[in-house]
From TrEMBL:
It comes from the Bacteria. Residues 126-216 form the HTH araC/xylS-type domain. Transmembrane segments: none annotated. It comes from Herminiimonas contaminans. This is AraC family transcriptional regulator.
């Protein structure tokens, strides 16, 4: 039986600094479908990892790198490979502009992976991020039933409206924790029922507890 491993995150600090995540172990855990508001580069330093991206399973081996554009849903698949170590780099456009080589790497990887920008309805994603309306009301404002709206959203974005809204809130919570906000305060401010509810969703998406993430960012 493989020992359970966790992600370790840290940041360089500063407004445009990158954030890093390191995972080391033998059995990579499954993470739920999620997205980041930053671009992501995953460098497999040893062993291998498996991901689902753009509806395809990608096996990333030692010495290879996976590029995930900002806002694109993806998930980590359970995978056993002894001695695996991988480094994630999450970067903002401001950070990338300071390092032209980073932008070039992302561009080359996007071409190699055949990555294309996910086709989205701006109304779908922006309303779900910022509106207090229910999904049924947002669907009605688009002239669709909730079921039709959900089918279209899944087809265009790659996850359900409800799941997308939760992950958007998790990304907002991640930023608040990075800035030093408390876990209970963040859970309440980001619309989670309680700290336990928040923690379960956060761990499922990011592979670490909110408290452990916040402590590493201090």
């Amino acid at each position: 039986m493989h020992r359970r491993e966790y992600w370790t995150y840290w940041s360089d600090g500063g407004v445009s600094a990158a954030e890093y995540g390191l995972w080391t172990g033998d059995a990579a855990p499954a993470l739920g479908t999620h997205f980041h508001d930053e671009g992501q580069l995953t460098l497999v330093l040893s062993g291998s990892r498996k991901f689902e991206l753009h509806g395809e399973v990608m096996h990333v081996k030692a010495g290879q790198c996976l590029y995930v554009p900002a806002g694109v849903p993806h998930r980590s698949l359970p995978h056993v490979a002894a001695g695996t170590q991988c480094l994630n780099i999450y970067y903002t456009p401001e950070y990338a502009q300071q390092f032209p080589a980073l932008m070039q790497i992302a561009s080359v990887l996007a071409t190699q992976q055949g990555a294309t920008q996910v086709v989205r309805s701006v109304a779908c994603t922006e309303e779900l991020r910022h509106s207090i309306l229910s999904i049924a009301d947002i669907a009605a404002s688009s002239g669709l039933s909730r079921e039709a709206y959900s089918r279209k959203f899944v087809r265009d974005v790659g996850m359900s409206p409800h799941a997308y809204r939760i992950v958007a809130r998790l990304n907002a919570a991640r930023r608040r924790l990075r800035d030093g906000a408390g876990v209970a305060e963040t859970a309440a401010d980001c619309g989670f029922a309680d700290q336990s509810h928040f923690g379960r969703h956060f761990f499922r998406a990011f592979g670490v507890t909110p408290a452990a993430y916040r402590n590493r960012m201090r």
